[in-house]
Amino acid sequence: MIFLEQQAKQLVTTQRTFFNTGQTKPVEYRIQALHNLREGIEKYQERILDALRADLNKSEAEGYGSEIRIVLGELDYTLEHLREWVAPRSVPTSSAMPDAVSTIYPEPYGVALIIAPWNYPCQLAFGPLIGAIAAGNCAVIKPSELTPATSRLISDLIQEIYPEEYIAVMEGEVETSTALLKEKFDYIFFTGSTGVGRIVMKAAAEHLTPVTLELGGKSPAIVHQDADLKLAAQRLVRGKFLNAGQTCVAPDYLLVDEQVYDQLIEEIKAEVRDKFGDDVMQNKDFPHIVNTRNFDRLSAFLTNGKTLMGGRSNRDQLTIEPTVLGNVDWDSPVMQEEIFGPILPVFTYRDLNPMLDEIIRRPKPLALYLFTENEALQDQVLNQVSFGGGCINETLSHMTSHYLPFGGVGESGMGSYHGQQSFEVFSHHKSILKRTK
Ligand code: NAD
């Protein structure tokens, strides 16, 4: 531990000294660094896909589509717009001071810490890094120890393209995070669980370091009676079973109008067969659960309701098949924490209002998905329920847009990023009033 603390201290000191030289600030330097990252990711593409297969059994298509493609898209969008974003922004000045001009100057915070989780280990390390670099910061990345092959390659890639005093990776377990969190960073960007988010925020408070917390939670999906059920089933199955349900914005549980319940369940079964084959346990490309601890936690949920679909699991292979549970009690264990696996509890309703009350009573979700064409109902849900972000008649896709800042609210997080917002979140906005006479 003492060694880790010394290592963390030395790294932060080295980066702060480098930051203070001002070398990371010119926009050309940032653009070159982003190009280096793009080239590095392209060069390491095969290794990234191999690591994602080793760590989570992600197929090539899933690994590319849900990790590499998203990072490259963010890089290209940032490279296209960075010169506009870095420019000082003129704003009006009060008429009481006619000789003055007012300008907002985005400036880098300094040395940033990025702590990443294991579920999208490549996307969620490189995504925030793009913002940190774009805004002109130095950064230390701490990847998740639960995906060791990806952690190693992130470290190798970063070492190959950047000097340590600019961007560095410190691999390791909780002790490594703890050692890093003792240091004074200028910004901390954390993605992970709500419980660890609290620890990170407490540590940040010691140094008054600003934080972004991208956390988790139980995200509901609602299917109303007028919804296109085939479409809803397709989009729910994609959202819930991508990465075997280990997605922060996966629909956690489903609320369905009782009039369309039977038909929706049939459509979900058909969609799972269509997407993953008749026997998902034999599907070599279905991701596995990250470790036995999570496998055991999830397996215990399999008996928390009536199995409407799936229900089988294999501990040696860490696989759990896509499972739908009916007759679930709101007080059962599966409804007490984020599921984060391929298990979907379903509740029926005649009147949606008590269901909305149930959602509001609980911690604010990271996402919410509503399937209906009824605009009055869409407005009601958006007005009544607070949640991070979400989709109407779709799942997950709000988080792939450069134009929609992505983040949680309340226990699902604070702050947001993606697109220009990633640049803004890693920038301090320095407001200057200048008098000319
Ligand atoms: P986690 O909180 O266990 O770990 C995240 C990171 O924090 C890892 O790098 C880990 O080493 C470190 N860490 C763990 N315990 C720590 C401690 N006591 N002190 C300091 N650092 C510690 O989360 P996870 O299991 O890797 O990820 C799953 C969670 O992340 C889920 O809740 C999921 O919803 C959430 N998540 C959120 C988003 C988002 O964008 N909002 C994205 C992905 C995952």
Automatic annotation (TrEMBL):
Any Gene Ontology biological process: aldehyde metabolic process
Keywords attached to this entry: NAD, Oxidoreductase
Keyword NAD appears in the UniProt entry: yes
PROSITE patterns: ALDEHYDE_DEHYDR_CYS, ALDEHYDE_DEHYDR_GLU
Top-level taxon of origin: Bacteria
Active site positions, chain numbering: E214, C248
Cellular-component GO terms for this entry: cytoplasm
Single GO MF annotation: aldehyde dehydrogenase (NAD+) activity
Pfam family, one: Aldedh
Protein name: Aldehyde dehydrogenase
Source organism per UniProt: Paenibacillus amylolyticus
